[in-house]
Specification:
Length: 272
């Protein structure tokens, strides 16, 4: 599969601000099953952009703008070749042992409900792989996808208690539950090409669990499947805050507004 992506993000301020800083995690890496054919980042206006890698090996771009700043436009675009490896994730940059991803974070910390859910769901399956699949499917059945129910700082326990959430919340609860039963798990941000849909409202998030004898395996509880060739993997972390596509701050008293335009499609159909 050759996937074409165009992702525009515009930050607008109610009044010009003195300065702004953003950290972008918007650039994919090559690994088995994913090859970046072309990719670029364009910034509107005068901005300093420095490419780096974070502690997980995610490619980051540090953007800084001196004011007065009325708006910032960020566009990433490119094409990525993908293959379906049945959810197996191999050939990625690994800076830490899997045991690091047993660590809970503020957004993934489990409460009694998640602990009980994880224990009950994994009581029957024997292998780690079967336990992870059981968690994914049970979570998909229990939580309703709802774009109006949560925000970027909603915790796993809050989303699980409400029974509603977006892909970010599904990933947080999966990581929380998996870690609570001894399965290392991490949050993944990226893109999902949806058949028949080109225009999308946001990027996607799922999880990876480290399975003994297999390595890292992807699980998308929002859709109850392991990642296929429709997925483009961008960044990992313990939770959203460590893998967010864009995070930053600005210096000034104005209100901030963010607008996103995202197009994801089969590159072959786009050229037809």
């Amino acid at each position: 599969m050759r996937i074409r992506i165009s992702h525009d993000t515009t930050y607008s301020y109610g009044a010009p601000v003195k300065s702004a800083i953003q950290i972008l995690r918007l650039t994919p890496r090559n690994f088995e099953g994913q090859y970046v054919a072309r990719w670029k980042i364009d910034i509107d206006g005068e901005a300093r952009v420095v490419r780096r890698e974070d502690w997980y090996g995610n490619i980051t771009h540090h953007l800084s703008v001196d004011g007065p700043v009325a708006d910032i436009g960020i566009r990433v675009s490119g094409e990525v070749e993908t293959e379906d490896h049945a959810g197996l994730v191999r050939g990625t940059v690994e800076r830490f042992p899997p045991q690091l991803f047993l660590r809970q974070s503020r957004l993934s910390a489990p409460d009694a409900r998640i602990l009980d859910f994880a224990a009950a769901t994994t009581a029957g399956p024997v292998s780690q792989l079967d336990k992870a699949h059981a968690l994914m499917h049970a979570l998909h059945d229990l939580v309703t996808f709802d774009v109006n129910a949560t925000d970027v700082v909603t915790t796993a326990s809050e989303a699980f208690q409400a029974g509603h959430g977006v892909c970010q919340d599904f990933a947080h609860v999966f990581c929380s539950a998996a870690r609570s039963v001894g399965i290392p798990a991490r949050y993944v941000s990226g893109y999902l090409m949806r058949t028949g849909t080109v225009e999308q409202d946001a990027s996607h998030a799922w999880a990876e669990a480290h399975i003994e004898g297999l390595g890292w395996v992807s699980f998308d509880p929002a859709n109850a499947i392991c990642a296929t060739d429709l997925y483009v993997r961008i960044a990992i972390g313990l939770d959203y805050l460590e893998a967010a596509p864009i995070r930053g701050s600005y210096y000034g008293a104005a209100d901030e507004r963010m607008d996103v335009k995202l197009r994801i499609q089969d590159a072959r159909q786009a050229q037809a």
